[in-house]
Amino acid sequence: MSYNFYDFQNAIQQRNDYVDDQLRDGSPVVGISCPDGIVLFTLRGSQRKLFEVYERIAYGAMGRQSDVESIRIAAIDSAHREGFQRSEDDVCLSRLVGFGISPAVKQVYNDQRAVPLTIRALFAELHDSPADDVFCTLNYDGEYRISKGSAVITGVRSADEVAKDILKTAAPSTRDEAIQVAAKVWAHAYNAMRHARKPGGDVDDNGVRLTPAAAFKGALEKGQILEAALLTRSTSKTSRFECCTPETVSAAVANLDLG
Amino acid sequence: MDVSLFHPQSGDFAAITGFTLTDAHQSVTSHANGLASEPVHGTTVIAVKFKDGVLTVGDRRATGGNAIMYDKAEKVLALDDTMLMAISGAFSKAIEFVRFLRHSFKYYERSQLQSLSLDGKLNEIGRMMAGNLGGAMSGGLVIPVIAVYDQKQAKGRIFFYDAAGARFENLEYAAAGSGSVQIRGAFEYIVRTKGNFSEMTLETALAEALHLLEIAADLDSATGGAGKVLPLARTVTAAGVTEISDDAIRVALGASTTTATSI
User: Tell me: domain A13-249, CATH 3.30.460.80, correct?
Assistant: First the structure.
């Protein structure tokens, strides 16, 4: 059977449509720096979505859980191999994602006989000051972007823009403030994703256009669980990664202003 | 690009690194350098229980045959937040042990999303000792003393291994290294005349342990005393691993040291 240029484009488009469609209903993941460290935040169903990769590297993702785990284990394996065979100081996010994970994800994406990974991932790397913290977002096709200060992954491009607009001016000074900012970003991004799903926007049972506050509240009412983690800048423990307790996260977002 | 990235190894750190000790041992002569005819060895380390956990102290000397190679060696090292390894014997092997075990425990915790159990950690150390048997026979012997805080039993515990990897648990104290032979009886004397270490306060246990280390330094040329460089002391308790400050060590040394010696 002949396979021409248009078939190739068609195949790529179909793969993109397939994965984008799966990610459209996902839960965004937000990462933001503050003097205490880096906060990662999301809402999840049953499985954890925020993880420690290495001493100063954390990871969060949206997508199919099996793919989330595949990338997680691949990142952990790669980081630990490098850290042991060379030095912990030689493990860095740009090399880990740029030369390790991203090309491997791209290879899976390019394989027309394989199902592409249904994932969008966010990596964070802690440094001594917030200005030096590095974030990296990775797409299912292997494309990745490196940023400073904050990063977000969502299900649709319009939600990305909404989230980035809020993050642009955010400067939290504590862990709890960072959780609040991240929760606000999550609510606005999730709201934008819901509106993107329906032409003309999404409405509640009374026909009123959904707001970020209603989207956030609705997600919690549907059983979504708040999840936050901190890569702390200062600790006497051997691990810098701490999962925030449900009480801590609930208290931080109790009086959230989602305006 | 290497798609083998997507073949995880179920928490087995040795499998992803290909690390093996059995291939790593070398004969004594291959370690020789211009200063010493033997590989560098760490000397005396001591672990004693106290009422909140385990205290581990070590002198700072590393020797190669008759030569003093280094006087700031760290021989009491944290493997994680609940476990200390005090090392005696071949220094290069011991440091490799510690690097491997630290990575191995962390790798398991990060990949499997749960900590390796205490028994799992102790078995891993035993496997490492057994894997080093060939190295031990040719001058690379390492004898570790393991101090842990057992969260399940809510108490400190002390373990040591023989060269083949057999594990033993000590009730009150343990010591390893060249100076440990000279002070073995003194441990028993303290327990019989002053009571169990596990009932002592940290201050008392520290003073006793430093006293024992000073005796070892007096009677064993390979053990460094506190006169030049202070010993290293760390505790492991329910709160984790804590380093005892130099000031606290000086105070304890003042309380314990007598300059009199019968030799």
Answer: no
